[in-house]
Amino acid sequence: MIKILMVCLGNICRSPLAEGILKSKLPNNKFIVDSAGTANYHVGSPPDKRSVTVARKYGLDISSLSGRQFNVADFDTFDYIYVMDESNYNNVIALARNENDKDKVRFILNEIYPNQNYDVPDPYYGGEDGFENVYKMLDEACTKIAKSLI
User: Fold this and answer.
1) Helix, strand or coil for residue 53?
2) In CATH, what number is assigned to the domain containing residue 112?
3) Would you say 69 and 36 are in contact if contact means Cβ atoms under 8 Å apart?
4) pLDDT in tens, 23-52
5) In which element (H, E) is residue 2 found?
6) How many domains does the chain have?
7) Is-contact 115 149, C-beta < 8 A?
8) Which positions are annotated as active-site residues?
């Protein structure tokens, strides 16, 4: 079983979208996909309504997901850890215990733009179109991830 973790700041906008998108592209008998946030602002909260709405527009239901905070044990649980931006990357790497932990952490948009370390913009303070744009970025990146793993 291959385990993949998507990480953003609060685990209510970008990472639940990425989780839902990637889950839809992989067989669930061979892969586990989860998400977490680097901050504890929204632990136990459902995804942002705008993330739920854009996911639903594309046939995905992420409404039952629940926010949680990234922790050191995630390095032991997950094979791949995809972060949404540089801040997430720095926060996750700060918890790494060794090079093996660090090697699991990747910028998700590097799947589309190798070695560029581009950020997935946080749509939280923006309008509806921000969520649509983020969905499209994540869908493209998750398609590449799925193709590389299947």
Assistant:
1) helix
2) 3.40.50.2300
3) yes
4) 999 999 999 999 999 999 999 999 999 999
5) strand 2-8
6) 1
7) no
8) 8, 14, 122
